[in-house]
Structure formats: C-alpha cells, structure tokens
Amino acid sequence: QGLIYKENGDPRGKLEGHVWDIDTKNLKEGEIFVKIGHASVNPADFNVIQGVYPAKPEKQKLPGIEEEVWIGGNEGFGVVEKLSENGDLNGLKRGDWVIFSKPQIGTWRSGLICNANDVIKIPNRKESQITPYMASTLQVNPATAYRMLHDFHQLDPKKDVIVQNAANSAVGQAVAQIASRKLKVASINFIRSNAYSEELQKAFDSYSKGDESCKAYLFSYEHLADRNSGLKERIKTILGDRQIKLGLNAVCGQANADMAKLMSTNSTLITYGAMSRQPLTVPAGLIIFQNMAIRGFMMNKWYAQNGLKEREELLKTLV
Amino acid sequence: QGLIYKENGDPRGKLEGHVWDIDTKNLKEGEIFVKIGHASVNPADFNVIQGVYPAKPEKQKLPGIEEEVWIGGNEGFGVVEKLSENGDLNGLKRGDWVIFSKPQIGTWRSGLICNANDVIKIPNRKESQITPYMASTLQVNPATAYRMLHDFHQLDPKKDVIVQNAANSAVGQAVAQIASRKLKVASINFIRSNAYSEELQKAFDSYSKGDESCKAYLFSYEHLADRNSGLKERIKTILGDRQIKLGLNAVCGQANADMAKLMSTNSTLITYGAMSRQPLTVPAGLIIFQNMAIRGFMMNKWYAQNGLKEREELLKTLV
C-alpha cells in the first residue's frame, strides 16, 4: 500500500491511499525487494506534489489503477527482503539496512521493487548507534547541514563562528549539532520568537556539552531587528577575536538581511531555503564593500553531481 | 588651486575653492611635481566627501589654512613637470603622461607634489589614440568594466550573452563597448526609460559595427517588468542557443531582480553599485535551484590587492 497522486496540486486534495499487490516472485536481474520501515516527510515533498519543485518523479503503472500515477516520498529507510538470483547486487544480502540513492523513488509505501543501484547500504543497529527512524531522515537534512558546513569555508574553532536562521528546522538543528559536536565551532542561531521553547533551548545547550567555546547560542529575529535589545553588543562579546565567515540562510527577506550584517568581510552566505516566501535581500554594501559571496545549496543537486562512492562516504560519515 | 573640504557632509555645503602656492624648488628624493590636466568626477567621489565610502583620504596641511583639510578627487590625468634630482623615479622624465596609482590622492587641483610611485606612466598622444580627457577617466570606470568582464566567467561569443543594468553609466557603456568590440560578445543592456536618448542608441549601435552576433541591445527596466511587452520572447530570440551566464548589476532592487530572472543556471551576478538605494533583491529560486552565484566588485579593492605591475598591465590593455 502507499500514498499516490494522479496530478499536481494541493497535497490535501491530490494525495490518496491505494492498496496493491507486489509480485516479488519474478525479480529481474539486479532487482531487489525492499520493505520500507520509515519514510520521512520533508517540506520539499509537498512542493513536488504541487509540481513546483525542479526534481520530478516518474509516473508508474500500478495494479488496480488504469492510469499511470506518482507515488509520494523522496526519502526513507528499508530492509532488503528479497534479491534476484543473478546480476550485480552491490554486495547486498537479505536483512541489510538501506536508504535510497535514487531521488523521488516514492518512499511513502510499504515496499517496493527497485534496482540494487537505487539503494545505499548503511550499518545496522548492531554496527552503529543509528535507529531506523534516524536512518529514514539521514539523507536530506543532516546531509544538507554537513555539506554546507564543509563545502564553502574551512571552519576553524579558534577563528570562526557561524550564523544561521531557521535554526529550529531539521537542517538547522543538525547544523548546530555538527558545528558544536564535530567541528567544535560555536554557532549563533536565529529562530522566530514564537518558535522558542524550553526543549529547543535545552537541545541547543546540550550540543556543546558545557564547552563555552563551541556553544550553540539561540536568539530570535525580532531580538536582532530591535536596535535597543543590545543583541549586537552581546554577539560582539561572544565573537571576541572570532569572525563570522559563514552564514546559512533558509528564510530570506528581512530576517536574513539583519543576520547578514553580522558577517565579516570575505564571508559566504549560503541560501538553501526561502521560508519567508520573500526574495533574498542583502544590503548591497556587504557585497560590494565587504566582498560577501552569496551561494546556493540544494542537496538533490549534490547527490546528482556526485557518484555512488561519494554518496556512500557522506552517509557513513553521518551515521 | 583646488577643491577642498574640512569635514564630511553634503558636497554642496562642504566643498570650497582654495588657492595656494606649491614650492616645487625643493623636491625631496623620489618626489615629482605633476601638473593636472583633467580630473574626473565619479559618483563615489561624493560618497567620499559625505564620509560614507570605505576609502578614506588623508588630511593634509596646505599653505593659507590653519587646520588640515581633505582635497577632493580620486582620479585624474597629469603631466610630469619636475623631478627630484636623486632617488628612484621609475623611469619617469619631464613631459611624461601619468595617471595616479594612489587612490584618493586628491586630483581636484591644478598640480601636486607626490612620490614617483604614486603615478603610472601611460602612452602619450603620439604613442596611442588616447586623449588627456580619456586618460583622466581610465582608471575607475573602464577598468571596472574590463575586470568584471574577465575575472568571473570566461566569455565565449558563441555561447554567451551578457546582461547589465545602469547601461548608460560610464561603466555600463564601457562594458557594452568592451563586450562588442574586444570580446565580440552580444550584450543585453537595461536603462531607465527616461534615460533613453537617440545618441545613446546610436552609441550602442556603433559598438558592434553592424555585426549582429555581438550587438549591444538597449531596453528599459519598465519594458522588462511589463509582462505584456513581449520583451522576454524578444530576448529568447536574441539568445538563440546562447545563454546568460554573466550579469552586471549597479542598481539592485526590483530592476535587478527582473534582470536576474533572464540568467541561466550556474550563472554569476556581479553587484558593483546600488543606484536604486535598495538592497540587493534576487528571487531565492535562482540561487537555490539554479545555483546562481552572487559576487561583488569594487575597483579600489582590486587596485589595493594587485601590485603596480598588474595595475600597469591593466591600464596598458585599456589604452
């Protein structure tokens, strides 16, 4: 069974459940049958259903429906249940834990037949601390966080502090975690004031394990925009001799413009979302006089541009 | 004599004429006396007087004024009138044509004593087609145009078309000229509709010398913003198989956002001005999905980062 849709539009009106049989008896060479344990839901999944996302899934023919349909879901965790007898199966065996390397494969269903090349084997619970739930959300958000922290600026705990907005998002939390725990770099994290919660504060406090030098600080956009809040002075104190050379933006609009003003000369601002539905807005002086570089990031593109080996390496690092 | 100011502020209130004597009899080692023929006025000069520009000139003590003052002007053309007897004079001799390598040297005066290192010798009228007037405006605007066309994307006449706004500015005209005449690359140039004139149209038409493949097209922001004007289709026809990988922006705001939408995937948008006094505004999708890179350019920074040799080379190329 799975969640399918026949045409693009508002997911609330277009998505429907469907039950069908899968014939796992006659797997073709190189094919495997994967039972899906968890499938994640990302904001981009809704954009795909709406038809406004650049990545388009392929329509498929399913038993019990006349027309070809799309199956929702880009990301998920599964277990290999059955393998074809011949063909190159990438060293997979029954019971292996996998996630999907093929984007938009349609993970919102109980199981699927795919090519052995469409999955990436990950360590199972015995081999690592990962859970099926974590595995199902590994590929988009933590991967985005990891790549943005590594591909644009070589971070140095003694010289660098990072800033980001939408810090309560899955990517945002992963960014602050990876920065504090792995890179030992402090982060200044912005959220809407109504997104504040004690749990979020506790989570952010926990990342640095009491080490002030790599603390994940949490502030609100409203606090930053208010000239009398004293936040800019507070941030100067936090920075000390360190500078903000890397900023991560998933919001755009004014909140991003305010954040960008905290950044130093020769910095890089990465935009990977526009949650405010506003265009990217940056004071021109930062770009002209302070040589700020503005770049974009999209995980799907990275996966498309990098081979299976690079992808496996990234996912192993994340696990 | 020259134009001086004692404090920052509105140039109309702060700039004043002053007449003083220069003692050219006792030049120190390495010093030269340059008589200034032409000094140019750039928009940035006013920002310097206002005190809002990053480049700050040094105050000087002048005969006849108690306090130290600034002298206006960044760029100019001069002739070497007198040289100190000893010291390294960079091969300069009396009568040589020079422009100034030291930024904000204060060119709005009839003559000055400076170090031989503060000038760059240029070919004189006998050696090239350059006039004193052209020489006096060489260093900022044509140099900016040249570097922006060369430092970010390798232009290919068969594959590339460039776009720019503020095309009637000195930089804009130089961009269209260098693109058509030297690089043989077509350009799509935007101006305010009230900046349109027949002379400007004739000038832009003349750049390509009748060669359609490297024509400099002239359109208005208003024309581009109007969905029913048919301009987007017109531009598609102009492009054919070519793409816009390089855009030059001196305006920011909405006019720039509209222009950016014409650009292709993996393109670079360079911002070197903000004539609309708006922040840079770019639809986020261009950055995230189309991997547009946004960079800034400032000629002063380039001069500061490059040695005398690179600077001389650039100016010789421009001459």
Oligomer: homodimer
Please estimate the helix content of chain A. 25-40%
Write the H/E string of chain A, N to C: EHEEHEEEEEHHEHEHEHHEHEEHEHH
For the secondary structure, the number of strands of chain A is 15
Gyration radius of chain A (Cα, Å) is 22 Å
Q: Name the CATH superfamily classification of the largest domain in chain A.
A: NAD(P)-binding Rossmann-like Domain
**Low confidence ranges of chain A:** none
CA-CA gap between termini of chain A: 29 Å
Topology diagram in text:
The structure is a homodimer of 319-residue chains.
Chain A: E1 2-5, H1 11-14, E2 16-18, E3 31-39, H2 43-50, E4 70-71, E5 76-83, E6 97-100, E7 111-115, E8 119-122, H3 132-136, H4 141-150, E9 160-164, H5 170-183, E10 186-191, H6 198-207, E11 216-220, H7 221-225, H8 231-239, E12 243-249, H9 253-260, E13 268-271, E14 280-282, H10 284-288, E15 293-296, H11 299-305, H12 308-318
Parallel strand pairs in A: 9-10, 9-12, 10-11, 12-13, 13-15
Antiparallel strand pairs in A: 1-2, 1-4, 3-5, 3-7, 5-6, 6-8
Pfam families (chains A, B): ADH_N
GO molecular function, one term (chains A, B): oxidoreductase activity
InterPro entries (chains A, B): ADH-like_N (IPR013154), GroES-like_sf (IPR011032), Mito_Enoyl-ACP_Reductase (IPR051034), NAD(P)-bd_dom_sf (IPR036291)
Question: Can you describe this structure in just a few lines?
Answer:
Two copies of one chain form a homodimer. With 319 residues, chain A is an alpha/beta fold. Chain A has helices at residues 11-14, 43-50, 132-136, 141-150, 170-183, 198-207, 221-225, 231-239, 253-260, 284-288, 299-305, 308-318; strands spanning 2-5, 16-18, 31-39, 70-71, 76-83, 97-100, 111-115, 119-122, 160-164, 186-191, 216-220, 243-249, 268-271, 280-282, 293-296.
